[in-house]
Amino acid sequence: MSMRRNPVFDYDEALRRVDQDLETFHTLMELFVEHGPKELAAIKAAMDARDPAAVARSAHRLKGSVMQFCAPTVVEAAMELEKMGRAGDVSSGAPVYVELESRLFQLAAALRDELQKGFAA
């Protein structure tokens, strides 16, 4: 067991979720690093358009892709925006979006670090 500690996500638990398959895990990390920011941009565009349903859809998709990395702070922020969107009012969502953006960038940076470690090994 690696017992890698990361303040942003639980490496060991995330790896367990793919049955310790490092190749699959690296693929998931690469996909997230590439597509996570696009989902975040979709949430921002939906918020700018004041489209609560689109905010809910995009936040739900992002939440689903983040859950596999066991990154609860990112999941919580996405879930909060999803709830606001489902309730039909994202007018007070800006601070939650800023929090989500910050946490998502931390997660993406941590995943990039892990990918570099993996390829250096």
Notes on the protein architecture:
With 121 residues, the protein is mostly helical. The chain has one domain (11-116): Four Helix Bundle (Hemerythrin (Met), subunit A) (Up-down Bundle). Helix content is 76%, strand content 0%. The chain has five helices and no strands. Helix 2 runs antiparallel to helix 3 (52-67), helix 2 (22-48) runs antiparallel to helix 5 (94-120) and helix 3 packs antiparallel against helix 4. The longest helix is centred in the N-terminal third of the chain and has 27 residues, at 22-48. The model has no long low-confidence stretch (mean pLDDT 91).
Task: Outline the fold blueprint.
Blueprint (H helix, E strand, L loop, with lengths): L10 H6 L5 H27 L3 H16 L4 H16 L6 H27 L1
Helix pairs in contact: 2-3, 2-5, 3-4, 4-5
Short overview:
This protein is an all-alpha fold and 121 residues long. The chain contains five helices and no strands. Helix 3 runs antiparallel to helix 4 and helix 4 packs antiparallel against helix 5.
Could you list some keywords that capture this structure?
single chain, 121 residues, mainly alpha, Four Helix Bundle (Hemerythrin (Met), subunit A), 76% helix
